[in-house]
Amino acid sequence: MKTNSKPRTILIIYTIILYSLWSLLELYLRTVIGIDEFTKEVYIKSALWLIPAILIHLNFSDHMFIKKEEMYLLNPKCWIFVPIMLLFTIYIIIGEYLSNGGLTISESFGINTVVEVFSIAIGEEMVFRGLFLNAILKDKKKYFAVFINSLMFLAIHFPVWIQSGTFISVFTSGGFITVLLLSCIFSFAFIKTKSIWISVFLHFWWDLLLFIF
DSSP readout, 89-140? Predict the structure, then answer.
């Protein structure tokens, strides 16, 4: 029990810091300082999400479900992301077509969009799958761990929904269910392949499709 106390304490502290600072950034600092979306999602997310998550995982990998020797590699099971990506593509394209009567590429889409989307995907997946889910899986059953992780993933979106004035509508429209389902898909893909890259690729592809259209 004593051997697990230090990594558990560090994880709790990091979780509190992450949720607190990200809420402060979304609800207050972005407006006051004038931080643009690209800076927030690429530079700040790398500093607050990606780098700390990697460092914590590398230092305490032995206390987690998937170790560092395995998590950063691709393996034969990684093929499962292909049909899931195809399903994502079909779902988004059909939804876009039915909503707008056609497919139109967003005028703002460009290389900066791709960089931003990749930063979002790798930062969020490293934190929520590579770190949080990985740590919970060490002590809890798979489905319970995925459930808790999905709630945590949902909660990190609260500040931006509040700031944009969409918090109530996200719940009344059922939009929050999409976030929970995506979190479950990313989580089970991560557990199945034991590779962080699969959840990153899936997350990246989903968000990229949303940004394209």
Answer: HHHHHHHHHHHHSS----TT-SHHHHHHHHHHHHHHHHHIIIIIIHHHHHHS
Beta-carbon contacts of residue 206 (< 8 Å; ≥ 6 apart): 88, 92, 182
If the chain, 213 residues long, is cut into consecutive pieces of 10 residues, what is the mean pLDDT of each piece? Answer: 76 98 97 95 98 97 95 88 95 93 90 98 99 93 97 98 98 97 98 96 97 93
Whole domain around residue 65: which residue ranges? 2-212
Cα–Cα nearest to 46, from 38, 57, 36: 38
Residue count of the chain, please give it. Answer: 213
- What's the CA gap between 83 and 175, in Å, rounded? 24
